[in-house]
Design goal:
heterodimer, A: alpha+beta, 2 domains, 15 helices, about 55% helix, about 15% strand, B: Rossmann fold
Chain lengths: ~375, ~240
């Protein structure tokens, strides 16, 4: 309290100094806010996308077994497949899954009849479809004018539900239908499935069990693991982050300009600093004044930039626009990303923007003030 | 060594650094004491070094030889930080006024008070008092750049007085004043001196030369300080 009481006149004067140059400071505020917004949007989006995908991947099966033959993927016999998988120690709860990709109204959609292919969170509150019905993702409903969905140009379905936007990263183009409809659409005979989902008792055994599973089936199979998918996605996220960082290069250049401008602007005020020193202000007093002035501009600028970036990344449909910008055109209007840990990212960005700016103000002032007051006053003779 | 109160010059020399090492000597062997409770007037021709002497006394410049002592302490030898802090006890009126033109009269006075330990309400009271004394109460919210030359000069005097300094150094404080306001400025200086301040004024103004408020007269010739007519040595 004593510190605040002592600093109160200085803070009031610093605010007055900011108002003495409204145009310059408003421009500076806008530059800092834009810079913060650009950097924060890119970093918040890529990190949130990675985090959201990782969270969804936690609910995916540890291993997926697909049968392959000379023509590519082939349906896997359910009973024989389950029996073979059950012989591998450590491979738990094998489940046959029925899914595939078929043409939809505006491009390919993923159809599934197995709840094992859908994140449990996405199933909450939904009624399983019966023959002729479908539950669809947000990307599919966007293409519809009524509650009817025609797949592959021949199968008409009535939409009875919609996956939550919060799971849109995994359900955007997903259509959940009855097994009979799925078999008809995908051409998978009765008694066979698209693949087998397998859960592990110990995650660390994934590599060893993959090898055992490959050997356990009487047909050639391809076994993919969650870690492979996660790694693939992580690499993609890192690549996107890299692109975002490259996109931030102009922003960094802008920051350099702002910092340089701050330093130059400070040096042009040397005559006034000389006057202040002549009236008993110490170098410390003047540096404090300059830093408080900079803080008065920087805090609202960074707060506004961060708040805008948060809104654009985490609040649909703005998040869809951010996704379209960063991913290079993907339409994800209802994209909902996980905002946990966003606070840490925002603190990092605030430090990234504010610290160089304050350092520029501090160093330029210290350098500018360290002379005899009269020499400073003569920098710009008083009229 | 006897410790004197007030501002004391001891064998003060000053030369502006010149090109090709040809320094231009401004002051030579200036020695005197400006005691508390006295108003000293220094006269001299233009370019005699009056303003330079004030700047040396205020610690705005460092002497090339000799020293300036304030209440017995050699302030001219102090590092910048201590001299800056000591200057809170000094009120300066610059010849060119050095007001900040785009801020109000009250804000110009506030600048002199901010580095001190005065409370916010104390600052407001001191500013109001000084503006009344300087006949500028109605112009408190007027930017200094919009005031007349005389008003600006009185504002500069008020700024020098507002923090109740122990040492007042004024360069031509009445130059732009009509007779009534010149008497007012001299009255302000006298009041400060009566309160214990040591005031040194450089001026060519005959109204100051003939004023009974002045206790000591000096004349600066060729960089040397001589007692002027009517000079009385300090007690």
């Amino acid at each position: 309290m004593t510190f605040l009481k002592r600093s109160y006149p200085l803070i009031v004067w610093a605010a007055r100094e900011v108002l003495r140059r409204p145009g310059r400071n408003l421009l500076l505020l806008a530059c800092l806010a834009s810079l913060t917004f650009l950097v924060a949007t890119a970093l918040l989006f890529t990190r949130a996308l990675d985090r959201t995908w990782s969270r969804l991947m936690d609910q995916a099966p540890d291993l997926v077994v697909r049968r392959i033959d000379a023509g590519g993927w082939a349906p896997i016999p359910v009973e024989a497949g389950l029996a073979s998988a059950s012989t591998v120690p450590g491979a738990l709860s094998p489940k046959a899954r029925l899914w595939g990709v078929v043409p939809g109204p505006r491009g390919p959609v993923t159809v599934t009849a197995s709840t094992a292919t859908i994140p449990p969170k996405a199933l909450a509150g939904l009624t399983p479809p019966v023959r002729g019905q479908a539950v669809v993702g947000t990307g599919v409903t966007d293409a519809l004018e009524d509650q009817r969905l025609v797949l592959d140009g021949r199968t008409a379905l009535t939409i009875i539900g919609k996956f939550s936007p919060e799971t849109s990263l995994a359900t955007h183009d997903l259509v959940w239908i009855a097994p009979q409809d799925a078999r008809q659409l995908l051409g998978i005979p009765a008694g066979t499935a698209s693949d087998l989902a397998i859960y592990l008792f110990h995650q660390q055994e994934e590599e060893a069990i993959r090898a055992d599973l490959s050997a356990a089936f009487p047909w050639p199979v391809h076994v993919s693991g969650r870690s492979t998918s996660a790694l693939r996605h992580h690499v993609r996220a890192v690549r996107m982050g890299g692109i975002a960082v490259v996109a931030c290069v102009p922003a960094v250049l802008a920051m350099v300009l702002i910092v340089t401008g701050t330093a130059a602007g400070s040096s042009s005020r040397q005559s006034q600093w000389g006057l202040l020193k002549a009236m008993g202000w110490t170098t410390g007093d003047i540096v404090r004044l300059q830093v408080v002035e900079s803080v008065i501009v920087a805090i609202p600028a960074v707060t506004f930039g961060l708040a805008s970036a948060y809104a654009v990344v985490f609040h649909p449909p703005a998040a869809g626009l951010a996704a379209m910008w960063i991913t290079g055109g993907q339409r994800l209007h209802e994209l909902v990303l996980d905002p946990s840990d966003a606070a840490v990212t925002m603190l990092e960005i605030a430090a990234l923007v504010v610290l160089p700016y304050l350092a520029a103000a501090y160093l330029a002032t210290v350098q500018g003030v360290a002379r005899d007051p009269l020499l400073l006053m003569q920098e710009n003779p008083w009229k | 060594m006897e410790m004197k109160t007030g501002l004391e010059c001891r064998s003060l020399d000053f030369a502006w650094p010149g090109k090709h090492k040809a320094a231009r000597q401004v002051l030579t062997d200036v020695s005197t004491t400006f005691s508390p409770g006295t108003l000293s007037l220094i006269t001299g021709e233009t370019g005699a070094g009056k303003s330079t002497l004030l700047h040396l006394l205020a610690g705005l410049l460092r002497p090339t030889a000799g020293e300036v002592r304030a209440d017995g302490r050699a302030v001219s030898r102090w590092p910048a930080y201590h001299r800056d802090r000591w200057r809170r006890r000094v009120g300066i009126v610059f010849q060119h006024l050095a007001l900040v033109p785009d801020i109000t009269a009250a804000e110009n006075l506030l600048l002199a008070l901010l580095p001190g330990s005065t409370s916010w309400s104390g600052m407001q009271a001191a500013i109001r008092r000084q503006l009344v004394d300087a006949d500028l109460a109605d112009l408190a919210q007027t930017p200094a750049g919009e005031m007349s030359g005389g008003q600006r000069q009185r504002l500069a005097v008020a700024r020098a007085m507002v923090a109740a300094p122990r040492f007042i150094l004024a360069d031509e404080p009445t130059a732009f004043q009509d007779d009534a306001h010149a008497i007012g400025v001299i009255g302000q200086l006298r009041t400060a001196v009566e309160a214990g301040a040591a005031a040194v004024v450089c001026s060519q103004d005959p109204r100051l030369k003939s004023s009974p408020a002045v206790h000591q007269h000096y004349h600066l010739i060729s960089g040397r300080l001589h007692p002027g007519p009517g000079h009385q040595d300090p007690p």
